[in-house]
Amino acid sequence: MTNRLAEAKSLYLRKHAENPIDWWPWCDEALATARAQNKPIFLSIGYSSCHWCTVMEGEAFSDIAIADYMNTNYLPIKVDREERPDLDSIYMQALQMMSGQGGWPLNIFLSPEDLVPFYAGTYFPVDPRYGRPGFLQVLQALRRYYDTEKQELQQRKALIIESLLTSAVLQDGTTTELEDHELLRQGWETSTGVITPNQSGNSFPMIPYTELALRGTRFNFESRYDGKQVCTQRGLDLALGGIYDHVAGGFHRYTVDPTWTVPHFEKMLYDNGQIVEYLASLWSAGVQEPAFERAVAGTVQWLKREMTAPEGYFYAAQDADSFTESTAVEPEEGAFYVWSYSELQQLLTPEELTELEQQFTVTPNGNFEGRNVLQRRNSVQLSAKLEMALSKLFTVRYGVSSESLETFPAARNNQEAKTTNWPGRIPSVTDTKMIVAWNSLMISGLAKAAGVFQQPLYLELAARAANFILENQFVDGRFQRLNYQGEPTVLAQSEDYALFVKALLDLQACNPEHKQWLENAIAIQDEFNEFLWSVELGGYYNTSSGSSQDLIVRERSYTDNATPSANGIAIANLVRLALLTDNLDYLDLAELGLKAFKSVMERAPQACPSLFTALDWYRNSTLIRSTTEQINSLIPRFLPTAVFAITSDLPERSVGLVCQGLKCLAPAESVEHLLQQVEKSQVRA
Fold first, then answer.
1. Each residue of 472-481: pLDDT tens digit?
2. Largest Cα–Cα distance in the chain?
3. In this predicted model, what pLDDT tens digit does every residue of 562-580 receive, in sequence order?
4. What DSSP string describes 306-364?
5. Are 118 and 160 in contact (CB under 8 A)?
6. Is the torsion defined by CA of 536, 539, 543, 546 positive or negative?
7. 638: exposed, middle or buried (C-beta count within 10 Å: 0-12, 13-18, 19+)?
8. pTM over 0.85
9. What is the spatial order of strands in the sheet that 267-268 belongs to?
């Protein structure tokens, strides 16, 4: 017997279709039913590759006693946060207000009449353990509270909604030249501190912080940090650590330790796009470690092999868990990726195993539940013998050699994973939906890597994905966020607009002769401005006014999480568009956006590195006009606030023109002179 979620397009929602809980999707009918029946709403938000979401689905959400009580006393609603990041953002903020921390699954209790939350938590076990109450106890206590403590309930909700509304409206700031430069320095120092290695906790890529830290190294700010060393170490941690799949490419979500050793094994498209862009930027900045180029190349091969749809777009994610055999009831975390020592002894020659142990963290006892996650010990180029050993492991995992495996089919659900006759190990489930924002991050990463490493394949993959979005993601003239097997759906949100415009501008930067990328960026930006710009406050709302009736507040994304904030990216885009089009309306909007978020930049620089990146663009933007040949020579260089325009109309005896914001310098009469002008322009603050 299935519930309403059986008809959902979302893989995450369909995973709950056989729960005894009478789940609803988030929709007008569900909200109206809760009001009519005066039932508090139990809203549960997660995503398909979330490990603890999967655990709770198999435990509490599959428990008959819990389901019976839930169905009688609540209106249960399931939301995929990847479909509705606007809902997730609001209620995650509420959870953090109530508990001081966040995470998924996000389980939150709402009053039906106004959708204001009154209690929230993350994972709830069936029975009391881990210092957490049993889920049925929680449900019973909260229903009693809802029914009997009306006055306190209203007071509690009033405090929560007031806090949410206050955080959604920020005070305007005013800028001066000196203040901006000092603000940029403070933002850089904060982000550099955030990514400085520590001795405890999980290790996340945190690319918005690394991006700001790297671009700030060109200023030589006085600081207690060696910015270049910190940025290099973050690149090494990523490219050498267990977070990278050294056998088949692609980066896992994060590691559960401070040593970058044991990952949480899901692979998210958004992480991989950002990391590829960062490693390419590091390389262009002169940090040319062989491990960086290998990690980028391996990730692109993984993307092409496992994450690219026949139509050219990129899939969203791969699960952390996989089945060890077709008869297994539950999947195991990391099973597709890890190696027992006895396996390695059987698969490799003694010489290969010896070298693997010398270069990787491989031991008889292992480093993950008795098995081995491969982590490199240093950044030297791997020998041909060691590459051959890794190739053997690839063949065991996939059942065929990497050279002959052009495309590896996606297991789209657990049933497919268990019933397909895989030639190697049973793979993790792949969420095959297309998300514009995440595809855009990958397009940007590929475009950057194509320019830096001069790899046409990278540009080809990026262009195909961008063209798919341009040709398929519009319904009745409006941009759409998702695509499920050829069907576009859900109006685009601010991160989709901002990141796709950036992706188009990055493609333009990589190939300036192709004007269509800029033309499409302008068209998308026009729609973004029309439907999401806040005339009253400045900056962009997360959603358009026509699709936000079910939101208790209308937020403007300015904080960076695993992905960069929409407003940080959008403001930088506006500066780039102003340079490329000579339309100063874009620059006016960029200035208004920075003023709108100035107070949070001053008060909480650790929350918003992408806004500081936008400030860097605003203060140090540089337009380089030159010939195709000359610009092609500049593309691989680290020029973080430069845009290129090809022109044949140069002054006599000059090789290029450099413009700083709204003024142009004297024509450069030699390549050396041009480079000198460009480098000075990039640090004129």
1. 999 999 999 9
2. 84
3. 999 999 999 999 999 999 9
4. HSB-TTS-B--EE-SEE-SSTT-SS-EETTTT-B-HHHHHHHS-HHHHHHHHHHB---T
5. yes
6. positive
7. buried
8. yes
9. 267-268, 317-318, 430-431
